[in-house]
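Our preliminary data section would be incomplete without showing what the modeling component actually yields. Below, a chain of 591 amino acids is followed by its predicted structure, encoded as tokens that our downstream tools consume directly.
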Amino acid sequence: MGCTSSTAISKNTDSPPLSSQDEAPAVAPNDNKQQAQKHKGCEQKCSRSNTPTEVVVAVEAAKAAAEEEEAARLKAEAEAAKAAAAAKAAAEEEAARLKAEDEAELRGSLTALGVEHELLLNKDDLVAALESQVAALSSDKIETMVSAMDSEEVAANLKELSVPFETSASNVEKAEKLRTKYVEFQAKLWMPTLRRMATIERANACKLLCDEYDEAIDDCDDKLLCPIEGLSRRHTYSTQTTTGDASTALKSLMKELRKELPKQISADPTAGIFVRYDEDNPQFLQACLVGVQGTPYESGAFVFDIFIPNSYPSSNCLITHSTKNASMVEANNGPGGFSPNLHRGTGKVCLSLLGTWDGPGWEAGKSNVYQCLSTLLWAILGAQHPYYMEPGHGGWEGTAPKSNHDPKVIEYDERVRFGTAKWAILEQMKSPPAGFEEVLKAHFLTKRHVIVQTIQSWIEKGTQKSKTDLGPVLKQINAQFQKMTADAPAKVKANVTAKAYAKAADKARAKAEEEAAAVAKAEEEARLKAEEEAAAVAKAEEEAMEEARVKAEEEAAAVAKAEEEARVIKAAEGAAVAKEIAKAKAEGGSC
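Predicted structure:
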């Protein structure tokens, strides 16, 4: 009986059969219980061993991936917050830097002018203090202020303003140095800007003067273009005769004077054209051209007489240079004066347009008075180095050198600068040509600071001879400016003092507002960028989390499926084991 049971369970066919005396003893009552426990342990072991290893690994990997995604999300959030804070800090730092820079410049200017500013805590107060000081720094007050100082006060002020001087110099010389320094301050501070005073260039000054200049000329009764009395009687061409019918010439001329020229010329402090014509005989014209900025002719007033023959516009007009005392300026390379193209002795204007030199000439129906005036202004009075304008010297040919100029070139430059300062500025201030008195007074007064600064730069950069020649002229110009300012009508004074300072302050404030707006714009752009970056990070995190969730669900489903399969296998195996046990019991019972 025991052998049958043993054989059925172990299926060991190699064991020899037992004899009758070797039969197994009867099964005790507890043996079935022990056997069931044994099979239960086997069942648990079977269940564990049949769960797939790759499922466990997948579950662990999913958990690790989810933790990694969460860590990445937190890190991205931290970096986005850090970037936004950095952008905000950078914008605040830039705004603070600009504010500190503005205040430092304002305080530096106030210190240089001897104004106490320690108790002024904000920019508006500093600007107001500087405006007040600038407004007070007029030429007559400078003269009064310096004249009232004794020698010790003059020396102390020179030291405070870092102006070098010889201790052995006379008090008159020291006082003149101090006046010059104050005039320099006046020139720099008057120009309509309060932020870049120490580095203002004359070009920028002239640009900023445009509005003031335009208003000053517009306030004149005689503006850019107008008729005047008696011009034909004092004209270079007063004895000129012309044959033929004048109707065509006059018709064409009046069209230019009434319709074309008013649109072609404008009030410009960097270069200008003023035109007068005889009210009874408009064939007699006179033009006053203002020399081009950045040339030896800068700010000077140069006069040209123009005659319109009866054959106009089929043939050219006639032009002569008639600036008073122009013959005092002598070229060093030909018969020229202020220019090789403006003859010293006769005033002859050498231009192919006028038929007085070789080259492209007058074009009937196309050429006109304005073409002649603009050529005179920009080609002749716009030459940086007049020497080269002598035909064959490179100016007209476009081959003149840009640097390393011959001493003769520099010598001619200095002759023209002296002539401009002496005859085209000083003498025109004292005795302007008839018909141009009001506009030239407005021109010189409005540009007085630029003119002084220009001549000072000529002196500083010039040779010793140029310094010697220009120094006394500059003194006379300063004195004439003081006289003109004192004699100016209230309307003109307003244009060049209170109105100018008020507009300077307005422009300074406008510039400050523009800069503040730029800073605010930069801050807003930084904020929007930070928000965009944060949104992008959040979106990326959300997508990553969704992807991790889907992946985790898929992996969980796979694990559940594997577990279900394992459970089914386990149940099947358990059923098989139970069947075997039942079979074994049945067979044992029959034995």
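The longest helix spans residues 498-590. The two ends are 5 Å apart (CA to CA). Preliminary results of this kind motivate Aim 1 of the renewal.
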